[in-house]
Amino acid sequence: MTPGSGPEPIIRGRITYLRAAERDDVPLFVRWINDRRTSRYLTARSPLSQPLEERWFDRMVEAQGSGSWFFVICRLDDDRPIGTTGLFGLDLTAGTAGLGVMLGAPDDTGQGYGSDAMAALVDFGFGSLRLQRIWLDVYDFNERARRVYERLGFVHEGTLRHAAFRDGRHIDIHRMAVLDDEWQSPLAASRGGA
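Below the sequence we write its predicted structure tokens.
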């Protein structure tokens, strides 16, 4: 696709954009989640089948915009889907939501796609949804992700000790969050401060 020839994405970063998930994406989700290099950082415990993911997809579509927002992360340069991200546990009274992110293929990690997509999603959460606090959980062994979240402005709020069982041992989960008045969007400069 020639740059500028397609529609302008509604939620975009510098190198990624977020779009709604389509049923045609389900086989890609199954492939990503069934790759241990990806799933070890998720709550998935066993292989996932296409019918199970289709049932999840139906529930996700039903909750879109009310209890959660779920998006596919795509590269701006070629529209290739590379992961998913979303807000869940949306509490519009308190102004809070959890954030989840997954880059599907290990080759797409370490290139800035995840942090770019997260920045676009946090901008959406604080700007369009008027949230006050966005939180996430990260496993203690995922130091790389934790550093990315800290660079984005997420602050460690606490540790859930031995809260998960992974790779034959109990592990801690770290809760991190960012508040609206703390958020300094890394995308604002590229959009003229908007």
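Residues 65 and 90 are 9 Å apart (CA to CA).
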